[in-house]
Design a protein that fits this description.
The chain is 11% helix and 37% strand. The chain has 159 residues and is mainly beta. The strands form three sheets. A four-stranded antiparallel β-sheet has the order 1-2-7-6, with no helix packed on it. A three-stranded antiparallel β-sheet has the order 3-4-5, with no helix packed on it. The longest helix is centred in the N-terminal third of the chain and has 12 residues, at 17-28.
Amino acid sequence: MRNFDLAPLYRATVGFDQIADLMDRVLAQDVSQPSYPPYNIEKTAEDAWRISLAVAGFSTEDIAIEQRENALIVSARKSDSEEDKGKTYLHRGIATRAFERRFTLAEHVKVTGASHENGMLHIDLKREVPEALKPRRIEIAGPNTVATKVIEGERTVEV
């Protein structure tokens, strides 16, 4: 395993603590992370993504999706159904073992929807930056002008 000292990064930067913590967390994780269930992450728009997990053998009721702070947690536990009782398998290749998969989300990324079809769980994500944090243009007043105009998106506000 590689060891990196991130102390110089902490000493030389201000306000990048989250990036350094993320790098530290990724580097500290065990190399043999679980690969079940397999998943894809695709970018669907400028500020939108889709996570697709292969969850064959699980019904919609067996799967739970939860968003806590900057983490998305997908878990599943197969309920003991009446169908499986009394069956004897000669080979059981479809994995239906319980799992919990965690994804770290950037700030302001929210889950906008989820669907389960044909053994695939699709989770749609979108970055929704609050109006107060969006950039705004401030018009500079001339020497004879007293009022300042703040232009926010489509509307102009007199200050």
